[in-house]
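Cross-check.
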Amino acid sequence: MAATYRNLIKNLLKTNSEQQTANILVTKHKLDIKKAKDLINRYKTKAVATVHKAEIHNLIIISDTHCGCKLAVCPRDGVRLDDGGRYMPSEFQLKLLERWDYFWNEFVPEATRDEPYAVIHNGDAIDGVHHNSVTQISNNLTDQKRIAYELLKPIVDKCEGRYYHIRGTEAHVGKSAQEEEDLAASLGAIPNPQGQHARYDIRYLLADKLVHALHHIGSTGSQAYEATAVHKELTESYLEACRWGQQPPDIIVRSHRHRNIEITMPTMKNGSDGETSSARAVVTPCWQGKTPFAWKIPGARLSTPQFGGILIRYSHNELFIRSKVWTVEPSEIVRG
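Predicted model, tokenized:
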């Protein structure tokens, strides 16, 4: 629609009904009635879409799907491999896929109250070829990206293209995350001003509240110190914002550790008389089972894996975090 008609219709609808606006377009601007009504409908559709875009109050964040690993989520019908063969998911992968489907088809609609939402994949979409491991479905990264695309493209459609992608670990997604960039571009991820479809971080506003997401966060071998690196990251985020006069994040989101944790610390509300708000940090769970690497490192070797994602929702001038996390039973008990 030409800008001239768009502005004209916008102004006419302020003081006229749709039928009156159509009549004015016919009598004063020499349009036939069908064309006039079509222009009005196109303007209304665009206006509603613009409002919806501005009113996004729900942000879904997942990470660490590690597509291409035999212990990660995989399409139900398997995936065609580059050499013409086909890989079919294991019993464990099918169970994990049930959780994936529940998350997107049940949890997300309920948690967002069927409102529009944006999605961030917070890195490590594919598993890559790394650390001399042999748990990959295929070492051909085209195969791995095909798995990721089949899983993630329906999600991009569900969120109506409000999809952002963060770069993960180079060991998994290539130097400068080149494989993740290629995948994100094929999915139509919204690029940053530099044209990167997979970016290193994102500062996302829900209303006037700031969410900062990037992939990496320090880890620990002891659950007694699991919150330490997360709290440090939040504290340093506030220090950096204060140092340079920037808006501090209300919530920071990190991934990489495959374990969900959330911490909160009170902050002063702007313009309040001692009333506090809160700053929070949350680490996302993953969509990958326990790998041989996890079986040998402190902390992880004793714990069961955590699958799922998080919702950040703006309501009543506050941000709320809701995590959906599953795990599995530990190894079976063997009787003597």
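The radius of gyration is 24 Å. The chain is about 35% helix and 20% strand. Passed to J.P. for a second look.
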